[in-house]
Amino acid sequence: MRFVQSIAVAGACALAASIAVGTAANAASIAVGKRLELKVDPKKMGEEQARLWKQFGGWCAIKDWHPAVEKCEESTEGGAKVRILTLKGGGTIKEKLLDVKPNFYRYEIVESPLPVKNYQAQFALTPDDDDEDEINFAWSATFDANGKTNKEAHDAIDGIFKAGLDNIKKMAGTKADDDDDDKK
Hints:
Elements: E1 5-9, H1 12-19, E2 30-39, H2 45-56, H3 62-65, E3 69-77, E4 80-87, E5 92-101, E6 104-111, E7 116-127, E8 134-145, H4 150-171, H5 178-183
Antiparallel strand pairs: 1-2, 2-8, 3-4, 4-5, 5-6, 6-7, 7-8
């Protein structure tokens, strides 16, 4: 099956509203979101969604598709699932799974060398709400800068999301439409 896709930055206001937790007093100040749109046969939407989530959506599947992740180890701590991501070039990130639903998970960073704190993110695969022949991977997060400027923290997370979704695009066996990427 042939896929066509583009990457778009999700609206920061909608993103913050969709994943923010807690009170306004402790809400994170930065929001980042990326979306990968894939064209699919609308008659096979369920099958394609299941296939793509099986390949890319598992809690530790990130090791198979994110170019910065060398290894992922799952464990349970205090009844919660955690993963330790070993990064290529050194460093580790410890993340805790907060919520799981079909084709969706939400998590937080517990320990990390990244310039962020109060980091919560979600990763999901859903049919597009306005195009019956598209399916979307969406990766979004809210956080505060830690030891760097807001722009530096934003750019670090934005780059991580872009690299991951770009690699999913490659692994899905698709050809990028550069014009679409530039328009979004």
